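Think of the structure tokens as a kind of shorthand, similar to the way a musician reads notation: each symbol stands for something richer, in this case the local conformation of the backbone. In the example below we present two proteins back to back. Begin with the first one, reading the sequence and then the tokens, and try to describe in your own words what changes along the chain.
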Amino acid sequence: MGKVEVDPDYVKLLGADKYLPWHGHVTCLTVAPQYRQMGLAKTLTAHLDEACEQENAWFMDLFVRVSNKTAINMYKGMGYSVYRRVVDYYSDDPTGNGTSEDAFDMRKSLSRDKNNRYIRENGESYRINPEDIYHP
């Protein structure tokens, strides 16, 4: 479901402003339809948050489809905010319209990040392309 990670060393060469330090990342979280609205996703995410606090991570991050309002609202309720919008991040098409979908990169500062260095205001309007996630 998640992990604590640091960016690969080569990212440091691309510029310090793109390098992500020790942080938690929700890799994948899916709850079967018959088990939704029971608090399972929130509980699992909270446990990962706690584990990352114990590992002294700076922040938590995750990517979520912009159409997934339920998940976005849940994460916002847990203290996450949108850091940036990644245009055409998801190339699969669950709607059958033949289009890709944007993702929100959502983040939550942990106690180590006392100045909220890895959070930004109005992240919904800060757009990047998928290939620019690690590039200046």
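Once you have a description of the first chain, move to the second and do the same.
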Amino acid sequence: MEPSTAHKNPTADLRHIPSFYNHNDSQASALRLILTLFPDWEQSEGKIEFVRFKDGITNTLLKAIKRRPGYTEEEIDEEAVLLRAYGNGTEVLIDRDREAISHSLLAQHNLAPPLLARFQNGLLYRFIRGRACISEDLTKENVWRAVARRLAQWHAKLPVISTSEIGGPDEHQYSGEGLPQSFSPSRSRKCPKNQTAIREIAPGKPVPNLWTVLQKWILALPVATESELERQATLQTELKRLVVEFGDTPGLGKEGLIFAHCDLLSGNVIVHPSRGDHITNDVETVSFIDYEYATPAPAAFDIANHFAEWGGFECDFTVLPTRSQRRGFLKEYVNSYDPAMGENEVQQLFEEVDHFRGVPGFYWGIWALIQATISQIDFDYASYAEIRLGEYWAWREEVEGTRAGEKPLRERRWAEE
């Protein structure tokens, strides 16, 4: 393995505002943050407005605009700011220092809007003009080709950097403050045993990575009952199996890892407005937002995870990409990643994505089990967890040949040409 190269922390010079966004006093607290960032907005002519962009199922996102007299909507949007406030208790799932580093790194490569500041429970960054997709959009060829191109740019351009290489805090340390009592006290940074387990789940890989994130989440599962303890043990066993099966799989990037988005659902894909010179065989231009789950991972996982999002939060398996659609996506992706690559690389990646198709269900199923305990957002996380983990168990039965009944719908759709 090559020796680690020191990198400057891209957030070293980022402004920090020592104030909170208050979900119960949204307008006033958001205004205080914006005026701290842009004091001139208070005195200059034009009304300040806030638009609730989306509530998602993790965070709150507001768009702050200054309606200066005589400005067009496009000019107003050019100085608009997005305020993203973190969801309750999500520090158990997401390392916010790492998220800011990811955002800054992406911005340096023109793959994300400029990050303007951090505040106590969120981020402020420039607005991207465009339309957030809905799940149906992902199934449209002019969109999925654009997603393939953009995702390949992410994977090809961005370096895989470990926490130690940028001198940041331990990715998997968190205080555990504010968590329900069903979460064991050992799930804090004061538990060396847990920290060791996280770092050692995938030896030799840069930390963090997909496997260390999953280990962190499993250790953070509620264990107040016997059934919860049994479930945690089962998922821990499965994680170890997955690392053995997938951990050393050859693939694109450094040691089979690329800088992955890991949350490429429809709402995180922004379709840019068309311009007069927009002549690209009708393929849209897109950007990605929300980088809180971004981490080194196999490219095949990031792609398989995106394919799963074609069905939306409703998990509509009937619209997942067929074999021909997946192949078309991967041809577009490979050509954008490296035009020197050809059909052999497409076929290899096709097989790797097929191999990974059950892992996103495992990933989001565990995530949802935690969210069911900590989130205040009106979403049925418990049911979602069962659906997503069900995807994983169905895949496991299929690849092991242990299925007793009819092939599940998701597996049938995946096999369609």
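Compare your description with these statements about the second chain. Residues 65 and 80 are 5 Å apart (CA to CA).
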